[in-house]
């Protein structure tokens, strides 16, 4: 065996053809041994990839396809609301593929041509597909996340929305790259439906930065298990709320799960607080 095949950190996953590996000095028995000992993954006849290649990319490669849409974005760390289905892109002229559930096959024409050995589509195409696959609120949260993480530069938005059907272009004015989580994006959309006045990422003396400040008095913080699950986290949050109360602010902390899957419950809570404050 001539060398070890490893995925390049941060690079898009790729596969190797048998002739590529032979050009690097691998012999047929080296390939067999590497697969048997877990040092190389065989995708299909004549195609191999590094053993640390993401499993979804391996599954896509075994269908002669590429990881796509929300599955590729999730691999990049971008927020997607529902990732229960694997999304794979197959070239339009390729033979029909019988995919086992839960898999969605895309056969659309790509905006950008991937590398011939790439196991995933280009990010711009994954984002375009994600807007078409998700409902508008989920699509906005995904685009917010991609912008916030720098996965797509703002300069590419023109190209992205030009490639989408006209009915989707209205979403652009609703984007906000300041959102630090999908829950924050979705909460912002809930507040827009209420019609209240609010500011995002507000710094309050003695309290710190809060996710939302509504009508100058109601703080809304979007809590998730990632940052608010331990008792130490909860003590920190309660002390922040206490400091805010001393300054005349009220705090509402909906959990991310409700923001994502039960928006009507969250909307009713905010509406009730605003109505009670108005009566007083």
**Approximate shape:** elongated
Helix content: 40-55%
Oligomer category: single chain
The number of helical elements comes to 12
What is the number of E strands? 10
Task: Describe the main β-sheet briefly.
Answer: 4 strands, mixed
Overall pLDDT score = 91
- The structure class reads alpha+beta
Radius of gyration, CA atoms, in whole angstroms: 23 Å
Strand order of the largest sheet: 7-8-9-10
Count of domain modules = 2
Description:
- By secondary structure, the chain is α+β, with helices and mostly antiparallel strands.
- The chain folds into 2 domains: 60-174, no CATH class; 182-279, VSR Endonuclease (Endonuclease, Chain A), CATH 3.40.960.10.
- Helix content is 42%, strand content 14%.
- The chain has 12 helices and 10 strands.
- The strands form 3 sheets. It has a 4-stranded mixed beta sheet, with helices on both faces. A 3-stranded antiparallel beta sheet has the order 1-3-2.
- Strand 7 and strand 8 (208-214) form a beta hairpin.
- Helix 4 (69-75) packs across helix 5 (123-133) and helix 6 crosses helix 8.
- The protein is elongated.
- The protein starts with 15 loop residues before the first strand and ends with a helix.
């Amino acid at each position: 065996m001539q060398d070890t095949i490893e995925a390049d950190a941060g690079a898009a996953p790729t596969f190797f053809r048998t002739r590529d590996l032979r050009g690097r000095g691998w012999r047929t028995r080296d390939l067999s041994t590497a697969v048997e000992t877990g040092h190389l993954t065989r995708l299909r006849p004549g195609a191999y990839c590094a053993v640390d290649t993401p499993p979804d990319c391996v599954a896509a490669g075994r269908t002669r396809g590429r990881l796509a849409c929300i599955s590729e974005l999730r691999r990049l760390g971008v927020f997607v609301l529902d990732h229960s289905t694997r999304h794979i892109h197959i070239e339009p002229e390729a033979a029909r593929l019988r995919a086992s559930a839960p898999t969605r096959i895309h056969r659309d024409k790509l905006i950008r041509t991937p590398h011939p050995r790439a196991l995933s589509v280009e990010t711009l195409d994954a984002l375009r597909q994600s807007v078409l696959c998700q409902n508008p609120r989920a699509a906005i949260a995904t685009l917010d996340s991609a912008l916030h993480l720098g996965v797509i530069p703002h300069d590419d938005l023109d190209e992205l929305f030009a490639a989408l059907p006209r009915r989707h272009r209205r979403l652009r004015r609703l984007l906000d790259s300041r959102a630090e989580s999908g829950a924050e994006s979705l909460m912002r959309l809930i507040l827009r439906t209420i019609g209240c006045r609010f500011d995002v990422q507000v710094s309050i003396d003695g309290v710190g930065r809060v996710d939302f400040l509504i009508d100058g008095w109601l703080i809304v913080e979007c809590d998730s298990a990632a940052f608010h699950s331990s008792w130490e986290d909860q003590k920190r949050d309660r002390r922040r709320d206490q400091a805010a109360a001393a300054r005349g602010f009220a705090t509402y902390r909906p959990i991310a799960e409700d923001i994502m899957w039960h928006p009507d419950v969250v909307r009713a809570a905010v509406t009730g607080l605003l109505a009670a404050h108005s009566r007083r």
